[in-house]
Amino acid sequence: MDAADIPIRVGAPGDWDAIWNLLGQLFHSPPSDEARALEGAVFEPARSLIAEDAGALVGHVAAYTRNLTVPGAVVPAAHISGVGVAPTHRRRGLLTRMMHRQLRDIAAGEEPIAVLWASETKIYPRFGYGPASQRLRLDISTREVRLPDTRPDGRLRQVDPVEAIPVFSKLYDDLRADRVGWSTRDDAWWKFTLADVESQRGGATQLYGVVHETPEGPDGYATWRTKDDWNNLGPNCQVQIRELVAANPEAYLALWRFLLTIDLTRSASMHLAALDEPLQYLVDEPRRLGATLADGLWIRIVDLPRALTARRYPAPLDVVLEVTDPLLPANSGRWRLTADTTGNATCTPTADPADLSCTVLELGTVYLGAVSLAALQAAGTVHELTPGAVRRATAAFRWHRMPQPTDLF
């Protein structure tokens, strides 16, 4: 069957096993009934698109219904995942058809943006997704770094992560509104986040949890694994940090001190750190944090006026944007974006001359406040039509803290 004739339909609950088998093949995942059940618990059939050829599932894209923290606000965001085409059906336009249909479906709903992690970063710019955040991968030589000697009040209590979900979720939700890049987690997503599937541990231990407590109650937690290793010099074990959440500097310091001083370990890794991770300014030898740069969340503006008015702006703004969006033409045209001294914004169509021109991809790139319009101007993808417009808009789009995506989905 020609790829243009392969039907694409909305998923059904009974499709999950076939979807799991396809994605397992595409992403080279080991088979696991436990992992199949955990991911099936967050599967939303009505938001899944399936391509079938002669009864066989050959393509899939999905969206999860969650909210995302953006600068100054929490907005509905389609969390895109499970994107793939069977090896027998690649390079035939099937992925393009599914992604285009998914964008149209999202645009018809209530979510002004879509967000994803890119398996291969060259794929998603074709569909208007911009690289909106980066992250640090820390591979720390724990014997080479020292933290301040101050000993804040509080104590540490080891917990079973799943049993501690009520404690974790309260802390997470209390902080989430101010943490750009954090996604909402209901009970199913908490269980998915804390999944402890043995086949996916890579030889490491089970997942552990620790809570930092004060007389006023818990104010931080961390989850981690350890991986056993010995060499001719003795113990060389590694701490693999999954997540660290702290409500204040005291809890942050106490949790890091604990994780970097576990007996018999010589290194620690954390691969979802923020670009402005405070640890960099606490240790005495930051080079030994082994920080390397990786991409984070990719953002697609789906409903331009709703997306730009949903977030907040740290500086007043009055700018006319000329935007091109070939996939969702309703976003194309000239838009007057204004923000007042409180950060509240309006975005309306206008016939006034444009101050800046770009595609929808560039607006997605700057949406989380991590990438500057000035950098995109220097790259030649944002064009200044009124002198000084880039400088003014750059100040308004930036945010006071870098995004820190915490969820892989």
TrEMBL record:
Record protein name field: UPF0256 protein
Keyword annotations of the record: Acyltransferase, Transferase
NCBIfam families: PRK01346.1-4
Organism of origin: Winogradskya humida
Pfam families from the UniProt entry: Acetyltransf_17, Acetyltransf_9, SCP2_2
Assembly, per entry: Homohexamer; trimer of dimers.
The family this protein is said to belong to: Belongs to the acetyltransferase Eis family.
Residues bound to acetyl-CoA: V83, G84, V85, R91, R92, G93, L94, L95, T96, S119, E120
Residues in coiled coil: none
Nucleus listed as a keyword: no
Active site, per annotation: Y124, F409
Domain N-acetyltransferase: start-end pairs: 6-152
Chain ranges passing through the membrane: none
